[in-house]
């Protein structure tokens, strides 16, 4: 209602001001026209007096103006411009002469209208008359404004009356609905209802809104009940899955104990070198099956670790050739036993940042899978190709293949190419699932292709590569036990997470550097001023002063003398651009690999120049 009244009042005021302005302009023009008429009448009345030089008649014409109290002064002039007759009220001064060259006409001068009008006889100017008339513009303004105020008040009272009636009929029911909707949104309470205030269309709207709330309330209760049941089912599934993982881990661990003496016994029998060929063949069978069981148990343990997020990769720069060589060596007994021909094609040395054992396990599992599902005497190929920033490793065979519609199931846990009673090869169906998990842990991807049953299979692994020079640098610099004393630097670590700061500081100290720690941005800036370190590692999310602000303060005070490194869990392109704009030289994403820090510090001059150029471009 207040909005309606304010809007109405504003409209009335605007209209009132416009009317006042128009009225004042009209009043000025009407007054000017009245004075002009009066001057013309005086000029005509005094024409004969001027023509015959009859001063008495001229004075009589001027005396008639005394009846008009607004006339302040008047005068009649001869053709020569000499004053012929004059009249003034309250000793007002009139011009003593008039120059015929002056432009005749009436003008406004404050609250007066003044001017000369020529006296014409027979088309010939024979003199002029002068008028000085007062017009009351302020009085007119006060009078009209008073009338306007009365009209505005009346209109406002009428609007107030109409607004109150409309509010009772329309606005109030809509406000009731709005309040009910706000209550539902804020409290999620669908039991609220809108009161019915009339029997018109707004009442129908309120009834419809109430019915909608009732239906939503009913469905919300049903959804809540279903969600509760689903949460209980999901919790039961999670519990069953956790128990399954624990069982697999326990089973694999317990079965390894009896395998150790069995393997040792087989090795002792082999060392005795029995002369009986049948006995030697039996020894090979037992040894091969024990190795197979050990591999299956290792896969079970790895799957259990991955599903529980407990598998840790020991990353280091490694050549792909060494990984493939280890995988082939692992799979060689199975390949030879099946009489397969293996062809390995490697390109120039390719470096990968990964866990050598796990990478070898990936390709060994793929080779074993190809050996198991390829008929005896088959052909298997392992090919590598460098494509941009990644390396593609392909394992092809001419085995049984698989139907294209089964492609998505190949990497599922316990999936098998054939039903258990129809297959002759051993396996738990976890090898490919383990391959997929390990490849993804290394930041890569794996896929499979086949034209169908009997057309063989191809498994394609993609892994990110690293430059040879950076990998070798990381390999040599990654030994914390042999720090380079010639490159000792003063470092400052600023992080509000104490464990993170202390652990990074301890690593840097093992590398032979002088390290200081601060646990918030404010203390970090103070420490930088006091210590003037070579490098400052700044966490971005900190209390008091965050990393961006601390970076700007240090950069403004020390310029490019200090190398500033951002430590953060944010690693998108936008985050890197923001840190560069704040003044950071380098952006590292948590958790930071020690090799990356070592490599950066070893190449600090080049990194400092790159950081300056990056900020200049940003």
Overall pLDDT: 79
CATH architecture of the largest domain: 2-Layer Sandwich
> What percentage of residues falls in helices of 4 or more residues?
40-55%
Class from helix and strand fractions? alpha/beta
The percentage of residues in β strands lies in 15-25%
State the separation between the terminal residues, measured CA to CA: 53 Å
Main beta sheet? 5 strands, antiparallel
Instruction: Give the spatial strand order of the biggest sheet.
Output: 2-1-5-4-3
Describe the structure.
The structure is a single chain. The protein has helices spanning 2-45, 47-51, 55-63, 137-187, 201-271, 277-307, 320-337, 356-372, 431-441, 468-477, 498-510, 521-531, 547-558, 573-582, 594-602, 604-617; strands spanning 71-77, 83-88, 105-109, 112-121, 124-134, 316-319, 341-345, 351-354, 379-387, 390-397, 445-449, 457-464, 490-494, 514-518, 535-539, 563-568, 586-589. It is α/β, with parallel strands linked by helices and 618 residues long. The model is unreliable at 419-424 and 470-486 (pLDDT under 50).
SSE topology:
Layout: H1 2-45, H2 47-51, H3 55-63, E1 71-77, E2 83-88, E3 105-109, E4 112-121, E5 124-134, H4 137-187, H5 201-271, H6 277-307, E6 316-319, H7 320-337, E7 341-345, E8 351-354, H8 356-372, E9 379-387, E10 390-397, H9 431-441, E11 445-449, E12 457-464, H10 468-477, E13 490-494, H11 498-510, E14 514-518, H12 521-531, E15 535-539, H13 547-558, E16 563-568, H14 573-582, E17 586-589, H15 594-602, H16 604-617
Parallel strand pairs: 7-9, 13-14, 13-15, 15-16, 16-17
Antiparallel strand pairs: 1-2, 1-5, 3-4, 4-5, 6-8, 9-10, 10-12, 11-12
Helix pairs in contact: 1-4, 4-5, 5-6, 6-9, 7-8, 8-9, 10-15, 12-13
């Amino acid at each position: 209602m207040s909005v309606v009244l304010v809007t109405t009042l504003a409209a009335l005021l605007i209209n009132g001001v416009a009317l006042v302005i128009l009225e004042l302009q009209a009043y000025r023009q009407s007054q000017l026209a009245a004075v002009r008429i009066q001057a013309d009448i005086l000029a005509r009345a005094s024409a004969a007096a001027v023509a015959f030089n009859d001063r008495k008649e001229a004075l009589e014409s001027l005396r008639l103006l005394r009846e008009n109290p607004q006339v302040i002064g008047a005068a009649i002039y001869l053709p020569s411009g000499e004053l012929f007759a004059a009249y003034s009220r309250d000793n007002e001064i009139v011009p003593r002469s008039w120059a015929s060259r002056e432009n005749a006409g009436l003008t406004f001068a404050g609250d007066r209208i003044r001017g000369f009008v020529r006296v014409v006889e027979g088309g010939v100017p024979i003199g002029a008359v002068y008028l000085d008339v007062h017009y009351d513009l302020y009085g007119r303004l006060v009078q009209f404004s008073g009338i306007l105020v009365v009209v505005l008040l009346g209109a406002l009272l009428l609007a107030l009356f109409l607004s109150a009636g409309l509010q009772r009929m329309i606005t109030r029911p809509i406000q009731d609905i709005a309040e009910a909707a706000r209550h539902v949104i804020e409290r999620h309470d669908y039991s609220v209802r809108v009161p019915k205030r009339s029997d018109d269309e707004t009442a129908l709207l309120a009834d419809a809104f109430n019915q909608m709330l009732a239906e939503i309330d009913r469905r919300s209760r049903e959804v809540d009940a279903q969600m509760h049941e689903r949460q209980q089912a999901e919790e039961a599934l999670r519990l069953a899955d956790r128990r399954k993982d624990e069982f697999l881990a326990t089973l694999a661990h317990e079965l390894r104990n009896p395998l150790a003496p069995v393997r040792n016994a087989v090795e002792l029998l082999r060392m005795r070198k029995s002369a009986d060929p049948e006995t030697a063949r039996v020894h090979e069978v037992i040894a091969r099956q024990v190795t197979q069981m050990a591999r299956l148990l290792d896969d079970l343990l790895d799957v259990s670790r991955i599903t529980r997020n407990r598998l840790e990769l020991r990353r280091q720069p490694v050549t792909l050739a060494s990984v493939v060589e280890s995988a082939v060596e692992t799979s060689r007994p199975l390949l030879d036993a099946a009489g397969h021909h293996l062809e390995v094609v490697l390109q120039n040395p390719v470096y990968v940042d990964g866990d050598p054992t796990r990478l070898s396990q990936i390709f060994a599992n793929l080779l074993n899978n190809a050996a198991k599902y390829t008929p005896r005497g088959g052909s298997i190929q392992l090919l590598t190709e460098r494509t941009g920033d990644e390396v593609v490793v392909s394992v092809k065979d001419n085995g049984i293949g698989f139907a294209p519609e089964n492609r998505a199931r190949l990497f599922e846990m316990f999936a098998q190419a054939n039903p258990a009673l129809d297959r002759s090869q051993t396996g738990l169906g976890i090898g490919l699932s383990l391959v997929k998990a390990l490849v993804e842990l290394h930041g890569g991807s794996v896929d499979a292709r086949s034209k169908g049953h009997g057309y063989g299979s191809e498994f394609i692994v993609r892994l990110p590569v690293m430059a040879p020079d950076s990998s070798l640098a990381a390999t040599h610099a990654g030994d914390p036990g042999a720090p380079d004393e010639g490159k000792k630097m003063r470092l400052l670590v600023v992080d509000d997470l104490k464990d993170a700061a202390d652990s990074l500081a301890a690593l840097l100290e093992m590398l032979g550097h002088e390290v200081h720690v601060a646990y918030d941005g404010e203390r970090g800036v103070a420490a930088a001023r006091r210590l003037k370190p070579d490098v400052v590692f700044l966490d971005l999310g900190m209390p008091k002063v965050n990393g961006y602000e601390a970076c700007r303060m240090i950069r403004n005070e020390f310029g490019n003398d200090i190398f500033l490194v951002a430590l953060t869990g944010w690693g998108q392109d936008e985050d890197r651009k923001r840190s560069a704009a704040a003044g950071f030289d380098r952006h590292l994403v948590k958790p930071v690999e020690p090799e990356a820090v070592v490599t950066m510090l070893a190449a600090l001059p080049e990194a400092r120049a790159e950081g300056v150029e990056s900020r200049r471009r940003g």
